[in-house]
Design goal:
By secondary structure, the protein is an alpha/beta fold. The protein contains 5 helices and 6 strands. The strands form 2 sheets. The protein has a 4-stranded mixed sheet with strand order 1-3-2-4, with no helix packed on it. Strand 5, helix 4 and strand 6 form a beta-alpha-beta unit.
Length: 222
Amino acid sequence: MELLKTNGNLIKLFAPKLKKGGSLYLFGKPDCIDFIDYRPFLKLNSKIVWYQPSRLAQGRKNYTNNYDIICYFSKGEPKTFNLDDIRVPQLVELEHRRRCENVPSVKNGKWGKTRFNNKGKNPGDVWGDIKQLTYKSKELVSRNVLNTIQKPEKLIERIVKASSNIGEVVLDPFIGVGTTAVVCQKLNRKFIGFEQNIDFITMANKRLEELENEQKYSFSFY
C-alpha cells in the first residue's frame, strides 16, 4: 500500500508540471496503479507489459512473476507518438502475408486488401523483444543495480523515441545510474535527472563522460 500511495503522489505532483499533450511513463509491478484515481490528472493510454521470461527468481508456492508494468499516461491526448520510429519486424510468414493481402477487407470494402507496413508493425503493449540485463550484459555498470535500478537502454530508447522529438526535454526524477541520460544524449534530446544516491550519481556521470569521449572521437567515412 505504501508503494501505491507513492505512485499516487507522484502522479499528483508531476501532472501539473506536464505540458498539455505531454507523456508520463510510470514503471512498476502489476498492481502499481491499482486503487489510484489518476483520471482527474492524466489519461491512461496503455498498460505495457514488459515480459521477462528469463528471470532467475522462481516461485515455489505461486506462479512466478515474469513481467513488469509500464503505465503510459498523457495530459489529454498525446501530442507526440512517433510510431514509425519504434516499429518492429513483422513476424508473419511470407505465404500467410500473401494470403492476407489478397482477401477482402471489411475496413476497405468488398475488394479491399489488408496491407502490411514495410517499416514494420506497432510493437503493441506486450514487449518481449527487449531482454532484461544480466550479469554478462556489457552495459551493466554494477551488479548492485541489476534489475532493480538499471533498465536496458533499448527499453528506454523505445519510450524516448516514441514520446519525444529531437531537441525536446526528457525528465527522469529517478535517474539511477543514468540510463535515461545516456539514451537522450545518443538521440539528441535534452534531459533533466534527479538522484539521491551519491554512488549512482558517480556511475551516471562516468557513463556520460565515456559517451561524450566516444562521440568526440567518432569518425565518419565517405
